[in-house]
Amino acid sequence: MYGSQIVGCGSWLPTNLVSNYDLENNLETSHKWIIERTGIKFRHIAADHISTSDMGILSVRKLIQSTVCDKVEAIVAATTTSEQNFPSVACKIQKAIFPHKTLPAFDVQAACSGFIYGLEMADSLIKANKYQSVLLICTEKMSSIVNWQDRNTCVLFADGASSVLIEKVQDNNQSKIIDTIIESDGTCHDALVTNIDISGKKAIHMEGQNVFKRAVLYNEKDT
Q1: Which residues are CB-neighbours of 205 under 8 A, at least 6 positions away?
Q2: Contacts of 33 (CB under 8 A, 6+ apart)
Q3: Which structural domains are found in the chain, ordered by start?
Q4: What is the pLDDT of residue 206?
C-alpha cells in the first residue's frame, strides 16, 4: 500500500501592504475594531498587473529553489479568482514552469477551503496509483473582487499564493498524509457570495453574523 507526503513548499506574497490605519482613512472603521474582531493588522495586495496565475507561478519558482520538481506528473490549482473562465490557472502555470512537458492540469474551486479540497484530490490520485507526484498550488487575488467601500468584507481578504509538492511514499511512512475531511452545507450558499455590484464588477457580499455563527457552530461540533 502507498500513501502521499508533502515533500516541499513554496510561497509568494505581494510587497504592497494595506494596514488597518490605511483603511481608517476611507471607511467607518478603526484599527482597534478590526483587531478585536479579526486579529488582522495588515493585508498584502497585489499590483494591478499581477494576476492570480502570476502569483501561482512565482510561488512554484520559490518551491523549485528548495525542492526537485522534475518528476511532477499532474498539476492542481485551487483558486476562486482566476482571471479567466478558461484556460485554467493550472494550465498557465504548466506553460510557465514545464513548457516542454504535457501534463494533466486543472483547477479546483472551493474558495477558502481550496487547499484542503486540492490536497484531497492530489492524495486520492496518488493513492489510486494514477500519479507518483502532484504539484498543488493555491493562489488568490481576492483584492480583485473586494468592494473597498464595504468594511464588513474588505478588511478580511488579501492576495498571495503557495505551492506544495506531493509524492508517493510507502504507507508506513511517518510523515504521510493520514486523512482529509471535506464537507459542505448548501443551505448556507448565500451567506458568502460574489455578486455583481452597481458598477458591473464582481464583489464579495457576506452575511457576517451568519458566517460567524456557522463557523463557531462547526468548531464546537468538531470538538
Answers
A1: 150, 153, 192, 193, 194, 195
A2: none
A3: 2-179 (3.40.47.10), 183-223 (no CATH)
A4: 86
